Amino acid sequence: MRETLFNWLGQTLYGKRCLDLFAGSGALGFEAASREAEQVVMVEQDRSVYKVLQDSLRKLDMPNVALHCNDGLKFAMQTNLTFDVVFLDPPFQSDLLTRLMPRLAQLLTKDGMVYVESGGAFDAGPDWQVLKQQRAGAVHYQLLERIQA
Fold first, then answer.
1. Tens-place pLDDT, residues 66-99
2. Would you say residue 40 has pLDDT above 90?
3. 8 Å CB contact between 82 and 146
4. How many other CB atoms are there within 10 angstroms of residue 98's CB atom?
5. Of 29, 71, 101, 104, which has the highest C-beta tally within 10 A?
């Protein structure tokens, strides 16, 4: 899935600002950073997972990555930063995607995109256009763009 995602986004993210709201292992954020993203902000709520991310970041020596130990929803509601790409892979049994979608319009740059992973088909609503979508087993994933007024 990760290979497909980065094929969708293009092989380089040079100059892009990316947000990984539910970083987990950090695979998406670190991959974006390795593809020359200008800045990658990774948010992880679980303190033990966050510490592993800190260790990984030290080993990888990626100055373009910023880590935050915070709740993804809370971070999204409080930040004034904007991003070209937002990665959303929240716990599948949560309602976080539905709660986050209205806020994403303020987090994205004009041509920003959102990558969503979910445990079932997810309808982002009428303000969003699906650019690409696929399914791997039970995991649905899609790349979305805001519909400009």
1. 999 999 999 999 999 999 999 999 888 888 999 9
2. yes
3. no
4. 12
5. 29
End-to-end CA distance of the chain: 31
Domains present along the chain, CATH in parentheses: 2-10+21-121 (3.40.50.150)
Whose tokens are 């915070």? That residue is 70
Cα distance between residue 113 and residue 142, in whole Å? 10
Q: Which residues pair with 67 in a beta bridge?
A: 42
What CA–CA distance (Å, rounded) separates 92 from 111? 27
Question: Which amino acid, one-letter code, is at 70?
Answer: N
Other beta carbons within 10 Å of 61 = 7
Edge-to-edge strand ranges of the sheet holding 39-44: 65-69, 39-44, 17-20, 83-88, 108-118, 139-146, 128-136
